[in-house]
Amino acid sequence: MPDTFKAILVSRDEDKKQSVTVTELTEADLMEGDVTVAVDATTVNYKDGLAITGKAPVVRRWPLVPGIDFAGTVLSSDNPDWRKGDRVILNGWGVGETHYGAYAERARVKGDWLVPLPEGLTAHDAMAVGTAGYTAMLSVMALERHGIVPQRGPVVVTGAAGGVGSVAVAILSKLGYHVIASTGRASEETYLRDLGAAEIIARDELTGPAKPLAKERWAGGVDAVCSTTLANV
User: Fold this and answer.
1) Cis ω before 57 (30° cut-off from 0)
2) Of 152, 72, 57, the residue nearest 105 (C-alpha)
3) What global pTM score does this model have?
4) Measured distance CA(5)–CA(75) in Å, rounded
């Protein structure tokens, strides 16, 4: 492989003015870790957008390669769990925030942060699901751990047309839940119904101040919006 590789680097000057460049790095520029991975695919998450634009303090060290998830192929490993050629996935662990992330052709990370790419999935398949889909599945599993089953009643998904919300709608519908999708984009109704939403409600219905002792409306929910919406769910 070539000695250098392309990367997106977010930097900040003495006046805290942020800049973003496409640059060439070497493996010597990468941060600590015991596994080096060729990044085959990644995604653009909301957090990544905030990191690159500087709209929120996502980046915690400077300079930094952003990108919070990737799927790739192990190039070298000092970790007993991984060897050259293994196909792996990474989500989170501070990557793209405090540790050089996925927006480069290579990444060096700790082997404990990696999970194997499931058989039958390509790197692009995995990143089509990405951190948003991973989060949605964890949310559904949490509902199930707390005894929420389709027979308990309908469930609501907020921010339903977004990454986490749309995958949550699809998963819950597939599992047999009566899914109510909350969205601020009425134009997405057809999309949400195609995913399996049984009902669509406007985001405004959940954005006002919560009423004390209000009647329970749903058996559970996946809230991707928070703020006053969480209080109303």
Assistant:
1) no
2) 72
3) 0.84
4) 14
Q: Are the beta carbons of 148 and 139 closer than 8 angstroms?
A: no
Tokens of 231: 């209080």
Ranges assigned E (strand) in the chain: 4-12, 18-26, 35-42, 69-77, 87-91, 106-109, 114-116, 155-157, 179-183, 199-202, 220-222
Cα separations (Å) of 6 from 56, 104, 137? Answer: 25, 6, 32
Cα separations in angstroms, 203 against 165, 173, 228: 13, 20, 11
Give 159-183 pLDDT, tens digit per residue.
999 999 999 999 999 999 999 999 9
DSSP letter assigned to residue 211: P
